[in-house]
């Protein structure tokens, strides 16, 4: 059952990156869209994520519930030492979530829209940035559970070059995912070209920031290169990601939308796999050289058993329903 | 501000905020489903417009409730890491099921909001129902988790260690049923009265009378049934609390001395220093009856409980008085309303009755918040009753006061924006839902 729970945890995190991340990306894309095109982008964006909007963000809740029920030590260590970035991310989630709904459901469309839009765009950016910072911090080895002073306990754990580089890398990946999804959502040729352009820019940004992540890792003495290149899975994943990059550019130019989505999702999955495989099952790397592993901190047997059962049961109920939702509201493109 | 006080205030604020939004999000779908059903059956456009108007309200509240709920799932750890470290695996079961229920609710809401003219009409109606049912299920599950804090079960606490953990037993703890029942009825009553009141106000203002009258009737029925059943559930809860948490009951009634028979106090000013209550109306023996079903039974007072295990008496007592007072008032309004229904009086002529409902708009929620104060403050100083103290659970990180200020500002502005949005929705009813215009999403 342990494996079932861990699988769901990984799946939850992955899907949050792919689906929730694309939602953040939508706000980021809007942020980097010229004023004259914004309202068009907004419309496409709403068609794209409106129906599945709430569902995309449930994956975070699923992941967090699995953590606090099944791996309480990991959850509490994160909550204590990454309190500040988590807080900022949460404020971002609240701000963008409400602004997104408010701007659509406000019965009167007036100057308030200006405010909702601003909030939505900036908080999307901030949320993705801090999501990345948190992810980076977990593996950065800067979290210091033996810290005696405020700064090293609560600040330097996440405020370091590596984590911030991962943050910006995440932002560009989210933007990239969103742009790719959006290409297929519009029927207008002009818009399509615009989104393709955005996808290309975001992809270039992702490659640049990806490089910066490696440089930052080097600077902060994190053996990132070893993790990625010194084991077969990491290496294969990164090679596949690079190959799919080439294919992706080719398809982008051709404007094939459906396969693009799959490919973009695949690419991001491979990147996550490459970064995380080497230290699995370690979830948090600590400054003192130790690590908090999923297997070592797993909750009591009965808890894991019932959690796993609940997850299996839940997915029997959820997945077909969710699949039908995506099917029903996404099939219209043909 | 002290970090511990700040953490408690932030938690209280977040929960207090979340409760209102999630209750609306959990009850409104049922109103919506009734109206939707009537539209499908009668083909009366007004019901269709009403369903759509309400569904926009649900979308706003659901989104706000969802983000504040996400916030809470992190806040538990951000503020009370030591509690979560031990409690997570024990009382996590309802949370993992709640995750499922909530997920289903979100999917169903997606179908419902975007499904007009796209889905089979009965499947569409069904998805609306699913929103309500899964919302209610999430509510019950979350309350079951809270009930565990009041009535810990499913583990043995030996030498500071939590062993023999059984999450199923923890979920079905002794308090889950009475608490969940009380909460659900409260949600229906409070939301029903709030919604009915808003529509009553519009009727009084002579705006779109047909639309608002239909809305009023649906909401009022739910509200009044809830308000009539609530005292029964309150009685179950009182007896339950008397058995499990005598300190809480004593604080609710400011019963400093053990008495036999014990009187019920109505109102009164509590002096925590002198341990006295001034100016209360005493009903002899009534507390004994409320707690044990016997007018002569002994009720344990705070003198039988170690001083360092006393909850804050004044707050608990006042909150309890407010809850019961409002509950009684709403019950009386319900009786009057049903009396009118039976006599087949037309509501439009009874302006005073409509005014009564307008007056009751905030009351249900005030009572609901007061009820939460009773159960949460009344549990202090424990976070896990009798096992772990709240102050031992708080995060070691200093400076929580700042996060409390930030969150106060956020919740304050969100409340204002949501109120403003609803005001606009209601104001736009004549424009958006004219009979001629049928499709406007």
Automatic annotation (TrEMBL), chain A:
Q: Which Pfam families match?
A: Cyt_bd_oxida_II
Q: Where in the cell is it found?
A: Cell membrane
Q: Which InterPro entries match?
A: Cyt-d_oxidase_su2 (IPR003317)
What residue intervals traverse the membrane? 6-32, 53-74, 80-102, 122-143, 155-183, 195-217, 232-252, 259-280, 304-327
Name the membrane topology term.
Multi-pass membrane protein
| Alphabetic keyword roster | Cell membrane, Membrane, Transmembrane, Transmembrane helix
- Top-rank taxon of the source lineage equals Bacteria
Q: Does the record's keyword annotation contain Membrane? A: yes
Q: Which family does it belong to?
A: Belongs to the cytochrome ubiquinol oxidase subunit 2 family.
The name this protein carries in UniProt is: Cytochrome d ubiquinol oxidase subunit II
Lineage runs: Bacteria, Pseudomonadati, Bacteroidota, Sphingobacteriia, Sphingobacteriales
From TrEMBL, chain B:
- How is this protein situated with respect to the membrane? Multi-pass membrane protein
The UniProt keywords, alphabetically, are:
Cell membrane, Electron transport, Heme, Iron, Membrane, Metal-binding, Transmembrane, Transmembrane helix, Transport
Q: Which residues form a coiled coil?
A: none
Source organism per UniProt:
Pedobacter jamesrossensis
- Give the protein's recorded name: Cytochrome ubiquinol oxidase subunit I
Q: Which InterPro entries match?
A: Cyt-d_ubiquinol_oxidase_su_1
The opening ranks of the lineage are: Bacteria, Pseudomonadati, Bacteroidota, Sphingobacteriia, Sphingobacteriales
One Pfam annotation reads Cyt_bd_oxida_I
Where does the chain cross the membrane? 12-37, 58-80, 100-116, 123-149, 180-203, 215-233, 318-340, 352-374, 400-423
């Amino acid at each position: 059952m342990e494996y079932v729970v861990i699988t769901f945890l990984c799946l939850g995190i992955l899907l949050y990156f792919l689906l929730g991340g694309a939602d953040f990306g939508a706000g980021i894309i809007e942020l980097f869209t010229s004023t004259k095109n914004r309202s068009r982008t907004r419309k496409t964006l709403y068609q794209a994520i409106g129906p599945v909007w709430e569902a995309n963000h449930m994956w975070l809740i699923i992941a967090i519930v699995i953590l606090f029920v099944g791996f309480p030590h990991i959850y509490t260590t994160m909550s204590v030492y990454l309190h500040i970035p988590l807080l900022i991310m949460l404020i971002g989630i609240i701000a963008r979530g409400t602004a997104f709904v408010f701007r659509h459901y406000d019965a009167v469309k007036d100057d308030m829209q200006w405010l909702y839009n601003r909030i939505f765009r900036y908080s999307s950016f901030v949320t993705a940035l801090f999501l990345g910072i948190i992810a980076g911090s977990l593996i950065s080895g800067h979290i210091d559970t033996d810290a005696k002073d405020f700064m090293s306990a609560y600040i330097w754990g996440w405020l370091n070059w590596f984590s911030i580089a991962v943050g910006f890398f995440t932002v560009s990946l989210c933007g990239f995912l969103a742009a790719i999804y959006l290409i297929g959502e519009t029927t207008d040729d002009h818009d399509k070209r615009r989104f393709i352009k955005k996808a290309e820019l975001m992809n270039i940004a992702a490659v640049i920031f990806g490089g910066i992540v490696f440089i930052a890792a080097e600077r902060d003495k994190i053996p990132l290169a070893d993790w990625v290149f010194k084991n077969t899975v990491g290496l294969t994943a990164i090679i596949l990601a690079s190959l799919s990059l080439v294919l992706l550019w080719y398809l982008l130019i051709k404007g094939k939308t459906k396969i693009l989505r799959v490919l973009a999702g695949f690419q991001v999955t491979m990147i996550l796999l490459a970064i995380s495989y080497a230290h699995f099952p370690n979830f948090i790397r600590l400054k003192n050289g130790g690590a908090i592993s999923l297997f070592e901190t797993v909750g009591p047997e009965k808890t894991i058993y019932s959690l796993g059962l609940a997850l299996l049961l839940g997915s029997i109920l959820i997945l077909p329903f969710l699949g039908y939702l995506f099917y029903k509201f996404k099939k219209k493109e043909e | 501000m002290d970090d511990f006080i700040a953490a408690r205030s932030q938690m209280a604020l977040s929960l207090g905020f979340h409760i209102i939004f999630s209750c609306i999000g959990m009850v409104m779908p049922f109103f919506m489903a009734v109206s939707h059903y009537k539209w499908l059956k009668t083909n009366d456009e007004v019901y269709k417009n009403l369903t759509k108007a309400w569904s926009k309200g649900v979308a706003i509240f659901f989104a706000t409730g969802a983000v504040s709920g996400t916030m809470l799932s992190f806040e538990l750890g951000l503020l009370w890491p030591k509690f979560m470290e031990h409690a997570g695996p024990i009382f996590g079961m309802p949370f993992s099921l709640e995750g499922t229920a909530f997920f289903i609710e979100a999917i169903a809401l997606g179908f419902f909001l975007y499904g007009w003219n796209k889905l089979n009409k009965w499947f569409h109606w069904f998805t609306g129902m699913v929103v309500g049912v899964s919302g209610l299920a999430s509510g019950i599950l979350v309350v079951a988790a809270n009930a565990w804090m009041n009535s810990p079960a499913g583990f043995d606490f030996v030498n500071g260690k939590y062993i023999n953990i059984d999450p199923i037993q923890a979920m079905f703890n002794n308090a889950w049923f009475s608490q969940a029942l009380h909460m659900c009825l409260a949600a229906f009553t409070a939301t029903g009265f709030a919604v009915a009141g808003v529509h009553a106000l519009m009727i009084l203002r002579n705006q779109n009378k047909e639309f608002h009258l239909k809305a009023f009737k649906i909401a009022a029925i739910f509200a009044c049934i809830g308000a009539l059943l609530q005292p029964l559930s309150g009685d179950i809860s009182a007896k339950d609390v008397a058995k499990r948490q005598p300190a809480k009951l004593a604080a609710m009634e400011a019963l400093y001395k053990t008495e036999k028979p014990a009187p019920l106090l109505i109102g009164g000013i509590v002096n925590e220093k002198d341990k006295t209550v001034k100016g209360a109306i005493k009903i002899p023996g009534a507390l004994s009856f409320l707690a044990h079903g016997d007018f002569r039974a002994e009720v344990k007072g705070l003198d039988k409980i170690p001083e360092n295990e006393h909850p804050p008496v004044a707050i608990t007592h006042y909150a309890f008085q407010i809850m019961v007072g409002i509950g009684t008032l709403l019950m009386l309004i319900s009786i009057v309303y049903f009396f009118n229904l039976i006599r087949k009086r037309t509501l439009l002529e009874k302006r005073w009755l409509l005014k009564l409902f307008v007056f009751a708009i905030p009351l249900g929620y005030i009572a609901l918040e007061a009820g939460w104060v009773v159960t949460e403050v009344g549990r202090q100083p424990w976070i896990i009753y009798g096992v772990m103290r709240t102050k031992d659970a708080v995060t070691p990180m200093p400076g929580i006061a700042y996060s409390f200020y930030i969150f106060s500002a956020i919740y304050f502005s969100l409340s204002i924006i949501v109120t403003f949005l609803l005001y606009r929705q209601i104001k736009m009813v004549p424009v958006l839902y004219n009979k001629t215009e049928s499709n406007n999403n």
